Amino acid sequence: MSVKPHARHSATPDPAMLAKAETLVEALPYLQRYRGKIFVVKYGGHAMGVPALARDFAEDIVLLEAVGIRPIVVHGGGPQIGAMLRRLGHESRFVDGLRVTDAATAEVAEMVLSAINKELVSWIAQAGGRAVGLSGKDSQLVVARKLDRARRDPGSMIEQAVDLGYVGEPAQVDRTVLDVLTAADLIPVIAPIASGEDGATYNINADTMAGAIAAAVGAARLFLLTDVPGVLSKAGDLLTDLTPERVAELEADGTISGGMIPKLATCVAAVETGVDAAVILDGRVPHAMLLEIFTREGAGTLVRKAA
Known about the structure:
The chain is built from 9 helices and 18 strands. By secondary structure, the chain is α/β, with parallel strands linked by helices. The longest helix is centred in the middle third of the chain and has 24 residues, at 103-126.
């Protein structure tokens, strides 16, 4: 990334320049607070397919590393996997938002996620950073176990097991390789694929993977970048500050539903296992993560333990 020399101006500062300086001053206490801390960022959703947003995301990650924060990126790839499966004439089937994954689908998922991983590493390099692409398989970073799901039959109300195939969840996380990379000022970029104890390859939901890694490294923040502004009230207002207890209330009264339920479950699990706070953000908004971290107003829904 080339850096332009400073342009010289008149002695009277331009108001826009003063506003930029004030923004930097506002960010100072947050820069001091988070220096040396680990942030785990899940990057996913349809924003991944937009080059301008991918460039913005990479620049944000490099900026975090430049000011002393240690970012770890976990990326998804659901839309891209789905598109490839359609091109191959393979119809996807979902259960509770999880793609039923047979052996052929698992192979396609690993191929697509590997390509996304290298592309993201390249974007970070173009922004001036140094990133290393990984998956859960590398150095046994993550050991997976098969994910079990059950559905209740509406007629009999009897729960029946659902076989999702090669869909897994993290059983163990070994942070060793992440510590080595971050200590060397390298940015880990992780694809949500891992081997199980049975030797099989499992596809893991990227939110779940990011949450497990955030807990294992004691992250100060877990960010889930998605396709919505955050958690909305029934009136459509953004809910900016939630606790696990409040999340349970909102789920009970129907405010939280659909795909937001597992995302918030990941956030709650993270803060209950040592992560300081988790944030759901709209990845389609340029630099939303920086607005959340370095401004008083924030930009998404923050989940934290009650004071």
